[in-house]
Amino acid sequence: MFEKLFGKKKDAASSNVTPAQLEAVKAVLAQVEDPYMGQDLRALAALDSANLKGTALMLALSLPYPAKGISEQLSQTVREGALAIDGVESVEVNFSYQVERHAAPRNLAGMEEVKNIIAVASGKGGVGKSTTTVNLALAMAAEGARVGILDADIYGPSIGQMLGVPAGTRPDSSDDDKYFIPVEAQGLQSMSMAYLVDDNTPMVWRGPMVSGAMQQLLTQTKWDSLDYLFIDMPPGTGDIQLTLSQKVPVSGSVVVTTPQDIALLDAIKGIEMFRKVDIPVVGIVENMSVHICSNCGHAEHIFGEGGGEKIASQFDTRMLGSLPLSMDIRQLVDAGNPTVADDADSTAALIYRDIARKVASDLAKQVKQSGQIPTISISDD
Q: pLDDT > 90: what percent of the chain?
């Protein structure tokens, strides 16, 4: 059994590895830094096992956040160092990811099947918030996490269409008819008001009804062992946002904006709203940051430049990433096959995955700083 609390863990189980070789392995890990957590692997990762079969060394490591996108790079660096260990001629490194549950804020009850809730918000509409939510959720799943997405934009739900869910799809219910079963789409668990009403039916509801509907969708959906649940918030700072902050254990928030001055002003309102209700703002995502002409390659900042960096600095958060004004991003999400799912190696998809790792590592740091009791996992290596 190994405690998964960064540096506070027991020595790994080993087979045919001498104490000197095990110490040498730890010394190698101490020289390899995780670029997102800013710690070396000796202090950060759990060394689950170290096995030596002949001259072949096999290492099993686990990180506290999903990071498939950089695991090969980390593995290669570990391999290069471990090959210098006496008696070792080949090295195999395998990473797993053990996402910890974020402490529920303000004494709110946590959700049993959801470890971390991430709200994606914007101060105004039209800045690409839902597109960001979908691609960010897909990126987190591509990094190795179990991910769900809740469409909390009751008046204008669009997540189903963006994930390619056929019109008229309805969620199944649990055996006791108390819970909705989330709709599986693109490898994500999803729930939306669009699954419960006709596409052409307007939601002519007052604020309390909308807030109640959002809370029911969240708590009466039978989520299945999620590491992260992304909530696509409606634009603005109204009833749903207030309900979310008061009754839902949100781990952190991501604010989406464009470089346009008016969008930045509204993004600031969103940041201030989250701060007033004690929800950490993980960072800013800036959409439509630059347009690159498909004919000549000329780059032009149509909506302004540097606004996201400016407000991130002003409000002591950080710029998570900038996405270009791209027809491909818009066309793919409209077709129900978002960028990260359609072309995993595209520039935009790699940006989304980098943002996902930043968000996940930030939440992992919060768990570490909170001093939560570590979970115990059992290995039968």
A: 54
Q: In CATH, what number does 105-370 get?
A: 3.40.50.300
What are the phi and psi torsion angles at 34 (to 5°)? Answer: -80, 120
C-alpha distances out from residue 233 to 19, 128, 190, 241, 259, Å: 53, 12, 14, 7, 20
Q: List all residues 6 or more positions away from 32 whose beta carbon is below 8 Å from its beta carbon.
A: 40, 41, 74, 77, 78, 81
Question: What was the pLDDT predicted at 165?
Answer: 94
Whole-angstrom Cα distance, residue 148 to residue 168? 20
Pairs from 99-102 (Cβ < 8 Å, separation ≥ 24): 99/64, 99/65, 99/66, 99/145, 99/227, 99/228, 99/360, 99/364, 100/4, 100/64, 100/364, 100/367, 100/372, 100/374, 100/375, 101/367, 101/372, 101/375, 102/249, 102/251, 102/252, 102/363, 102/366, 102/367
Beta strands 188-192 and 183-185, pairing class? antiparallel
Amino acid present at 152? A
Contacts of 270 (CB under 8 A, 6+ apart): 121, 122, 123, 237, 255
Nearest to 100 by CA among 65, 144, 51: 65
Between CA 42 and CA 33 the distance in angstroms is 9
In the chain, which residues have pLDDT < 70?
1-14, 104-107, 198-210, 236-238, 290-295, 297-307, 370-381
Give the start-to-end residue ranges of the domains of the chain: 2-98, 105-370
> Which is it for strands 299-300 and 291-292: parallel, antiparallel or unpaired?
antiparallel
Where are the extended beta strands (E) located within 163-295?
A: 183-185, 188-192, 226-232, 252-257, 281-286, 291-292
Task: Name the CATH superfamily, with its identifier, for domain 2-98.
Answer: Fe-S cluster assembly (FSCA) (3.30.300.130)
Residue type, 92: E
Specify whether the CB–CB gap between 152 and 238 falls below 8 A.
no
